[in-house]
Amino acid sequence: KVLQSGVAVAAIPPVAPKRRQSPTGQKAAAATLAAAEPLPAGRVMPVAFRGGAVGAATLRRVLCYGDSLTVGFCANGQVYEPYGRMLAKDLAASATGVECEVLVSGHSGLTAAEMVAYMDNKKVQDVASRHGKGLRRILREESKPELALIMAGTNDLGKGRQPAEIFKDICRLHAECHALGVRTVVLSPPAAPFAKSSSSWDVSRRRLKELLTSWAQSTPFVAALVDPSELVPPAAAGAWDPDRLHFSPAGSKLLGRRLAPLVLPLLFAKPAPAGAASEEIRVAKVIHPAGSQDRPAAGLNLVALP
């Protein structure tokens, strides 16, 4: 496994209350609204984006699962620009001519712990009043993907959870995919403009990334670990929402575009060794047993793996 240098991404707190905007802020908000295509409203996620020639010899499916960074929340919830939309376009535009379907499901404001608790739910409502299926239900009811990209943990960091606790829940999410033979890509919580590198939030974020990196290198069904803030740096002009937490539409598109060449070869990789997933599930359940107190009540670093 090859580890390339990189940084990490942040967790997404709940929707911020609306505030008066200066003329400059109003202009920026208008530009944000104009830059994004509408995301179908009223539909239970996942939402599918398709690219490439229909009927092509090869169809590859990708699941993008996570929080508001995945669904592309910005402009205080007035706009959604999921990175999966651009990922589908760029995968389809590749020289391979692959036909692809990218499913997107992002629960704004939810922690990784809540995603674990709601894995079987038919309809999970997030803080922005959008609805989506739980991860296990998606995997069992939708067409099986070749690859799942999971970005979670930002909201856990925002709520002060310890990196080791967050890590256990993220492992559980990946393990559910691996149990069905679906390889995964870890998108670690990215660094965000609002948090200085010396802040306790970013210190915890970096520690979480270390834990995820070590685990990814030793887990057969993890295809790669990517630090989104290497692809969309906190200082990138126009790439972040005015709240300095979420990507702007341009930032989400940039993430999708830069992920495409990393994801493409993984879609054609050989499956992981038989038996590897069951051992990982056993370890994951020991790490985070049912009924753990960490779980709520019901209701780029690129690590390239062979």
Which terms summarize this structure?
12 strands, six-stranded mixed sheet, alpha/beta, 36% helix, 11 helices, 16% strand, single chain, disordered N terminus, two-stranded antiparallel ribbon
Describe the structure.
This protein is α/β, with parallel strands linked by helices and 306 residues long. It has one domain: Rossmann fold (3-Layer(aba) Sandwich). The protein contains 11 helices and 12 strands. Strands 2-6-3-9-10-11 form a 6-stranded mixed β-sheet. The chain has a two-stranded antiparallel ribbon with strand order 1-12. It has a two-stranded antiparallel sheet with strand order 4-5. Strand 10, helix 8 (200-217) and strand 11 (222-226) form a beta-alpha-beta unit. The radius of gyration is 18 Å and the shape is globular. Mean pLDDT is 81; it is low at 1-25 and 285-306.
What number of domains? Answer: 1
Please report the distance between the alpha carbons of the first and last residues: 7 Å
Low-confidence stretches: 1-25, 285-306
Computed over alpha carbons, the radius of gyration is 18 Å
Instruction: Please give the CATH class.
Output: Alpha Beta
Architecture, CATH level 2? 3-Layer(aba) Sandwich
CATH topology: Rossmann fold
Order of helices and strands: EHEEHEEHEHEEHEHHEHEHHHE
Please count the helical segments.
11
- Could you name the CATH homologous superfamily? SGNH hydrolase
Mean pLDDT: 81
- Major sheet, described briefly? 6 strands, mixed
Count of extended strands: 12
- How much helicity do the residues have? 25-40%
Shape: globular
The secondary-structure class comes to alpha/beta
Q: Determine the strand fraction and express it as a percent band.
A: 15-25%
Strand order of the largest sheet: 2-6-3-9-10-11
